[in-house]
Amino acid sequence: MRHNQNHLHINRRDILRAGSGLLIAFASGVATAQQKNTPQIAPGKTLKADEVDGYLDIKQDVSVIVYCGKVDLGTGLRIAIPQMVAEELGVSLQSITLIEGDTALTPDQGPTAGSSGIMRGGVQIRQAAATAREALITLAATQLEKQREELVVENGRVMTMARDKSVTFASLLEGKPFSLKIDEKVRLKNPSSYTIVGKPLPRPDITAKVTGKHPYMHDVKIDSMLHARVIRPGAIGASILSIDDASIAGLKDVRIVRIKNFVAVVSSNEWTAIRAAKLLKIQWSDPASLTGHDKVKTWMQTSFADNSNAAGKETLIKKGESGKALSDSKTVLSATYYWPLQSHASMGPSCGIADVTKDSATIWSASQATHRLRGVCARILNLPTEKVRVIYRDGSGCYGTNGHDDVCADAALISQAISQPVRVQWSREDELGWDPKGPPQLLEMRGSVDENGKLAVWETDMWLPKATASLPNIPLLGPDAAGISQPQGLSTGLITQNAHPPYAHPHLNVTVHWLKDSPLRPSNIRAPGKIANSFAVESFIDELAASAKRDPLAFRLEGLADPRGRAVCEKVAELMGWQSRPSPVNSGHQGRGFSYVHYKFNETYVAIGMDVRIDRKTGSIHVQRIVCAHDCGLIINPDATRQQIEGNILQTLSRTLIEETTFDRSKVTSIDWQSYPLLTFPEVPELIIHLLDQPHQPPLGAGEAACAAVPGALANAIYDACGARLRTVPFTKERVKMALEKGSA
Amino acid sequence: MPVYHLTVNGEKRTVESTDPEQPILYILRNDLSLTGAKYGCGLGQCGACSVLVEGDVIRSCQLTINQASGKKITTLEGLSQGDTLHPVQAAFVTEQAAQCGYCTNGMVMNAVALLAHQPKPTQDDVKQALVNNLCRCGTHDRIIRAVLRASGKVLP
Predict the structure, then answer these.
(1) A401, A434, A467: which is the final residue of a domain?
(2) Please, are residues A669 and A743 in contact by the beta-carbon 8 Å criterion?
(3) Element (H, E) at A319
(4) What pLDDT is stored for residue A43 in this prediction?
(5) Same domain for B91 and B73?
(6) Looking at CA atoms only, how far is residue A443 from chain B in angstroms?
(7) What is the pLDDT of residues A374-418, one digit of tens each?
(8) Quick one: A134 and A276 in the same domain?
(9) Is the peptide bond before A584 cis (omega within 30 degrees of 0)?
(10) CB contact, 8 Å: B44 with chain A?
């Protein structure tokens, strides 16, 4: 039986008619008494990730609802996924309604992370659409008394090639679901015949975003919702010594919720809650357990060496005899590179709403992993997972696991304590101070060039916090403070990839020195690990090329066989008008730099070139132009892809030039936009982006790869300009001046 | 409870606040359901909460209800006339100048204020006008293009 549409909680008021005519929908935003008593999974709607009905629902009016477990984080998935479905299924884009991330409606396709939205999530849904199309053609062949080969699909109908007979999808299905497993080997449409995929169609949510009508997480209102602020400790790991309730006695309509070291103030008025959070006097202990940000670089090596923080040494790659080859080399170069802790630094501090009743919970969240969060909330609340529903709403861009999951746990704990729906909004200080941080990375490189000026030996030694195996989620702040047990450990993302050169190397060794702990709670931040690794690799390649007095691009290309890799490098060289010569140019202030990455060694290809100007007196770096060539396979939407690349580049430029989370012995001290500044408009360079489309290759990710090529190109351009080698991020004016004085910093 | 009178997007509105120091950001978002202005920092550092007060662009997280009393306020929602977008909004759509869009309110409101005072800005003028508006997604280039487009500049 077809399921009843009324149980889908699709609130038509929330449906936005967008510029491209595409409909986007959000499942009901208003919790009613009725909803509280309804099961947390819509009856009849399968959530199975391997079934066509998990993703597609073709309605009697030939509209199509697409259920997507991945979410649009401002990345353009909201247009790209419908483009893929419309193309493969044979329906118009206008007929599609996309529902994202709602755990009661969408299959669990894993977190929207690792640049996997299209590469995995979209490809899975494309297979569902192709399986559905083939099944519809089979049904039509019987009904129209034709051979399958004589039939085509178009605009929600199966028809004969002569267009003389046709039947709608809806009438073929007769109101029944497909009840089909996704055929992973299903015939896919030939890209040569694409009419929707590959078009730079406008994103459906931009009009609403520029008119104030887009329904962000931060804008959701629930009946009888209260506003809460959580008061974070005065120091990391601190406990409460005393609370002075009288300090907020002057405020009406406020209550304090305390669970062990978890404290929140709750009010029906948001401003009152903010005032109460500021006024409430709490005395905290101060464990003073942190290293301080300025000591992390040294601490990473010493705490491994003295065994206080060592979690083993692991050889990741070994090829040839690098140790012997290095000792046989006439000249060996070595250099150490450091990437600091950084914040996701979302523009909007995290926000979440929870409505927890005795036996169920509904959470509104901007999490990049709603399905994972569902299990986490169920554990925290001691409810069966099937009684918890997480509804996705767009948040401020997160670029990894920021505070979105934490804030939902906060809201869930408070709502459970007071049996009322609760909205928790983090402050700026909360977000920059308490979001889990991108972990620090330290890399030591050694290498040599042979007598012919070719790369001969390469060794990478990394010091990295070790991610805990099978950790279901990052330990969240609220439950930790409230004394609720949760799996402990470190979450970092995959941070060892791209730590050796993508160029021919007769002898190679990559070793990691694992650290048991990290200075602050770590999590995945955009292009985890790959930015720092690629920075070190692409800087050190330049150092080797310079030592051999070789042109850095020619030095790379000589060892690069992959034609797609060569193509992006050569494109950048062409667009920059690259002149073959060694670095530095010794102009003293004007230089160019190059960097290349084959992301994770099996995904997107990116080359970046930069022109920079250095002010030797002030140490300031003026990036004038950034040229990027990008090959992410089949491009679904070139404009959205281009925008992702622009974002990758500018965000990583900011991270490389300016950003470092600072902390003392007790807590994070970079807690506003003055102490944690971001790139500003006057610093934005000219951007030239060239997309190399590969329609007959699988689609890869565009959400991360270009990040990894940014810092190397910048460091190399600075070296080219003035002979100063920057190996420590961020590239502050002080560091530039120090490098100008000493040769490196 | 003390009562305050405002004109918001051309309509006279009366709001209550127990605290005269309450920033109008919360009044707009919670009492008047105008959620275009966003809370970004509460410190006047990012621009996400920008609104126009008597035509000048103001950080609504820094303007108290007491200060705003009797003033004419325009929010992002008040720029468009029905389905007809303000030229700045239309240019943002043409340039697809938003990723997550959380900072977009501030960008649009500051651009509207800039063009009111300086109808034909150069690219550097636009960059300077937005120097105190932060964007984390890296949409800067498109935002600059959108503001120039709204000024009538022909873009490739």
Answers:
(1) A434
(2) no
(3) strand A310-319
(4) 55
(5) no
(6) 27
(7) 999 999 999 999 999 999 999 999 999 999 999 999 999 999 999
(8) no
(9) yes
(10) no
Q: Which domain holds residue A40?
A: 5-211
Which phi-psi region, left, alpha or beta, contains residue A633 (left: φ > 0; alpha: ψ -120 to 50)? left
| Rounded CA separation A631/A462 (Å) | 28
Percent of chain B with pLDDT over 70: 100
Residue of B nearest to A430 (CA): B41
Domain count, chain B: 2
Computed over every residue of chain A, the mean pLDDT equals 94
Task: Give yes or no: residues B12 and B68 share one domain.
Answer: yes
Whether chain A has a CB inside 8 Å of the CB on B122: the answer is: no
A66 lies in the same domain as A143: yes
Which of B78, B113, B130 marks a domain boundary? B78
- Set of chain B residues whose Cβ sits within 8 Å of the Cβ of A673: 41, 43, 45-46, 134
Shortest Cα–Cα distance, A203 to chain B (Å): 7
Q: How confident is the model at residue A110 (pLDDT cuts 50, 70, 90)?
A: very high
Task: Count up the domains in chain A and report the number.
Answer: 2
Report the CATH number that the domain containing residue B60 is assigned in CATH.
3.10.20.30
Report residue B156 CA to chain centroid gap: 27
Record: contact B138-A427, CB cut-off 8 A: no
Whether B113 has its CB under 8 Å from any CB of chain A: the answer is no
- Given a contact cutoff of 8 angstroms between Cβ atoms, the answer to whether A182 and A131 are in contact is yes
Hey, is the C-beta of A229 within 8 angstroms of any chain B C-beta? no
Domain residue limits at B24 = 3-78
For A2-38, write each residue's pLDDT tens digit.
333 333 333 333 333 333 444 455 443 333 333 333 3
B21 and B70 within one domain: yes
Q: Is residue B156 part of a domain?
A: no
CB A708 within 8 A of CB A534: yes
**Interface test mutation site (partner A, options B38, B83, B136, max chain A beta carbons within 10 A):** B136
* Residues contacting residue A705 through CB under 8 Å, at least 6 positions apart: A115, A527, A597, A599, A603, A604, A605, A606, A630, A632, A648
Question: Are B45 and A19 in contact (CB < 8 Å)?
Answer: no
Q: Which chain B residues have a beta carbon less than 8 Å from that of A345?
A: 136
| Separation between Cα atoms, residue A540 and residue A665, nearest integer Å | 33
Residue B93: which of A210, A427, A648 has the nearest Cβ? A210
B79–A contact, CB cutoff 8 A = yes
Residue B103, chain A, CB below 8 Å: the answer is: yes
User: A459 and chain B: CB distance < 8 Å anywhere?
Assistant: no
pLDDT of residue A259 exceeding 60: yes
- Measured CA to CA, the distance from residue A479 to residue A381 in angstroms comes to 10
- Determine which helix (DSSP H) or strand (DSSP E) holds A312, and give its type and residue range: strand A310-319
CA distance A43 to A232: 40
Contact A443, A475 (CB under 8 A): no
Distance from CA of B110 to the nearest CA of A (A): 13
- Of A414, A434, A454, which residue is a domain's last? A434
Nearest Cα to A3, choosing from A60, A69, A62? A60
Helix (H, G, I), strand (E, B) or coil at A650: helix
Q: Is A289 on the interface with B (CB under 8 A)?
A: no
**Within this chain, do residues B12 and B72 fall inside the same structural domain, yes or no?**
yes
Residue of A nearest to B47 (CA): A347
Which chain A residues contact residue B89 at CB under 8 A? 207, 210-211
Which amino acid type is present at position A503? Answer: Y
Query: Are B99 and B146 found together in one domain?
Result: yes
B9 interfaces chain A, CB cutoff of 8 Å? no
pLDDT, average across residues A235-247: 97
**Considering the domain boundaries, does residue A381 fall inside one?**
yes
Residues A245 and A274 in one domain: yes
**Same domain, yes or no, for A66 and A176?**
yes
Residues B28 and B61 reside in one and the same domain: yes
The verdict on B101 and B118 lying in the same domain is: yes
